[in-house]
Amino acid sequence: MLDLNAIIRGLELIARPELFLAVACGMLIGIIIGGIPGITSSLSLAIMLPMTASLTPLTAIMFLMSAYSGSLVGGGIMAVLVNMPGTPGAVAATFDGYPMTCRGDYNEALGLQICASFLGGLWGWLLLLLFIKPMAQFSQLICTLDMFFLAIFIFVLIGVSQETSLIRSIFSGIIGLLLTSIGTVPGTELTRGTFGISELDKGLPIVLCIVGLFALPEVFNLILRESIAPHDGRQSYEMKRFFAGGLSILRHKWTVFKSGCIGIIVGLLPSAGAAVASLLSYSIAKRAAKPGQKFGKGEPDGLIAAEIANSASSGGAMASLFVLGIPGSGSAAVIFAGFLMHGITPGTGMFKSHSPLIYALIISGLLSMIIMGVLALLFAFHISRIVLVPSAILVPLLIVLMTVGAFSFRHQTFDVLILLCFGGVGYLLRRFEFSIVSLIIGLFLGKEFEKGLLAFSTALSENPFDIFAHPISVVLIILISLLLTFNFFKHSHHISNSRT
Amino acid sequence: MKLHRNGRQIIIDFPVLVIVFATLLWAGTYYFTATGSLIQCQGSLLYIRTLLILLLLLAPFVLKSAITTTTRKPSSRNTPINKKQLFLGVSIVLYVWAINIFGYLITSIIYTSVMVWLFGIRDLRLLVLLIIGTGTIIYFGFSVLLGVPLPLWPID
Known about the structure:
Chain A is mainly alpha-helical. Chain A has one domain (4-495). Chain A contains 20 helices and two strands. In chain A, strands 1-2 form a two-stranded antiparallel sheet. In chain B, 67% of the residues lie in helices and 8% in strands. Chain B is mostly helical. In chain B, helix 1 (14-37) runs antiparallel to helix 2 (42-65), helix 3 runs antiparallel to helix 4 and helix 4 (104-118) runs antiparallel to helix 5 (124-145). Chain B has helices spanning 14-37, 42-65, 83-102, 104-118, 124-145, and strands spanning 2-5, 8-12, 67-70. Chain B starts with a strand and ends in an 11-residue tail after the last helix. Chain B is built from five helices and three strands. Chain B has two domains: 2-70; 83-145, no CATH class. Chains A and B meet through helix 8, strand 2, helix 17, helix 18 and helix 19 of A and helix 1, helix 2, helix 3, helix 4 and helix 5 of B.
């Protein structure tokens, strides 16, 4: 399973000081850019790609991969501090990270978030080093039909984990699915749902929808407060509390292990990515909450579950890229382009001809996590002051940052309007207890859901028993049925209890 | 909206009704416009139709959840929108409108400084710092470093 010879040659390849510099620079740029809403990791990698042309292939890919890992952490930092997920994968970090910040525990929240990112990334890369081939083979087993049932499973799981009603949660999810269908029909030049607006031909920019749904409504709440965190005489940042928060992760070993596995498995799936991984991991942790744990109100377990899965998913995404040559996300696609730019084609051929290079990249991924830990600590240490900035200053600045970030996404002013519209939608949905999380899951899984529905209808029309030839789908159908049955009985029990 | 019947109070969450009907109206219009233009893409239509049917099936249950019957005086869950929030909303719309005319640089600088002033910060040094900071982030950060083709000036 482990090619020790290739690993040793990989270690020899990375034993150069300029590579460490490339990793540190990539990581720093990634952390900073990841914190800007609208500038996604894929967009920032695309901006940096031409700059790597003069570098050696290994240095260039290591730089891009570090920037990718850094952006996942940077997005999380802003999600925890300002409720503004810089990257889609950071959405779930807002659920418990931001409430921790609001009650004044921002040092602990940041320490926990960085530590979770570090451990999640380490876990992801380590498993990649040990099981790269089986991981890639597993990702090949997943078919369109499995993705369809996985999408339904995630919907139901998130629906039953929400405090809002299951019906409203599924209703929001379907709105999300319908919203992703806007734009050009796959494989054709025909458009749908654009109502004649040409800017919508390429579909809705999901990352801006998320920023609108989460950050804009929060800005409206923030203006009524003096600052994000209360001024209670404590210093804006305290290293002691910072480390205490980080070390508290050791009390949540089971969540770390479970969320790491979820992150890696979901990272392997095509088009799922960090956002689905973290949302699924968060929902599972919430579902398994012990008495006294208050998810959504600043529960450390929730932040750990979200951030570990977010970070670990990068390991899974890289497995299918390195071995199969299939980029599972937008960022992986840019790294794929980076390989091609330097004359290397990722896939099965690369594993045969460049296996030391692959192992060098994986080891550098592990190394980048350590550098990330140090840089993120320094970065977060200074940026945590933001939580004590008066709202009167912070709110206008955040609005300007979001607006400019929205324009930067596709270089069109129409995207700013999309941001505003989704801000309004987010405000209304939150106010009237519709689930924003389900809407976001709908936005993420819409494309896969459409393909899956077609495959499902074809399977039904030809031979319904064909579904039993897909064991993963069968397992998912059983899990969906169990969840719905369990929820039904729980609901009935709750009603009968309230009547008595 | 509140109704009284047989000593019981029926509370209707009216905005929920609006959200449900607005969603159905949008989804319905979407489907019927798509049927005209996507005759050749039956798969695409199947997807939209399925989602529309699901929305129609769920809508009565969502509407039912918006109606509560109680004998007690309910606590006010939905606090009214604050004047400050309303002002912020209007200011954002005006800012986005002004961007298209005056460009990002001038509009953002004016917006930040005016809003900070109106929200009660009267420190002149801080305002100058904000003006320089906003200008630097937009010009150097986004336009020069990230290479975003922002329409910075009115003529852009």
